[in-house]
Amino acid sequence: MADVSDTRTWRPPRFLPRWSREVTTGGYALVAVAVALDFASGPGVTFAPMLAALPVLAGVGARRATVPLAAGVVASAIVAGLAVYDGDVPAVVMATAAATVVVVTFFSCTNVLVVTAQERELARVHTVAEAAQRALLRLVPRRMGPLVVAVRYVAAEAEARIGGDLYEVMRTPYGVRLCLGDVCGKGLAAVETAADVLGVFREAARAEPDLAQVARRLDSALARRPASEEFVTAVLVGIPDTPGPAVVVNCGHPPPLLCHGGRVSAVEPSVEAPPLALLGLVGGDYHARSLTFDRGDLLLLYTDGVSEARDAASRFYPLAQRVAALPHGEPDALLDELLVDVRAYVGSGLTDDAALLAVRRER
Q: In whole angstroms, what is the distance from residue 21 CA to residue 328 CA?
């Protein structure tokens, strides 16, 4: 899982899994047994070729080529000693064993160098990905105006950092404005589309007093992009600094959930509208819906990575029911408990990226 609240820098794994350590230890034990049997069986029998396994075992999990090199030197010394002890064994057999140790040591050292270089490159790639994540999905202050805010971004892949889900929370001359969306697409194309949406939203949200016009500008910007299959479902929310109704514009996105007076209800759009980039194809327009958002109320925005999570029987996660059963106090606590509940419901892990954004107006 990759969570935007986790600021730790990724590093390549430095330790082997437990089962790998056990297998490696077993390999050392077998080599030791082979040497013991060689001495016990007398001068006419040799197990010297098995010593070629020493540099291989030493290279497992090593980060320096000197480790398998040292093991190869030790193995070569033991082979030399056994050559003297096993006088009845043909010299060609012992020479072959020594040559095998040298060749295996060389390839073990080379393998360690290659793996170490790949891990350094992977670490650099992850560092760039983390920087891109911070640029696209910026950290959100816990408090913004009259609101307490919490956000979570969870990637389906364990090592993923960024994807097609997006969010933004920002102060504007018209109050706090929120955007949460989901790009229909995968890979770098989805990341590029998400970057375009966030860039336009950050500019338009400050310039346009009408939130529906912000949605139109987003749609127009995406429609002007080179031909692609990516479109974006999104929901925009405007919350004034003074007590008063909020405004919601839904662009083909799952409806937000409003927690008011202990009850949870879906904020359905007054008029159905298409996702961003499709308005010119299907017609219609984006409309703003007024929403009562009193002190103590909590609004939850989410992507379908949560609402369409399935259990072993392929049943969708009952988001509204589960949210109703959770305490609606601090947004941070709500999102943490909600993610724990989703993972327990799915069992095998999320199959799609998930973004959650919760805001509560202070009492």
A: 46
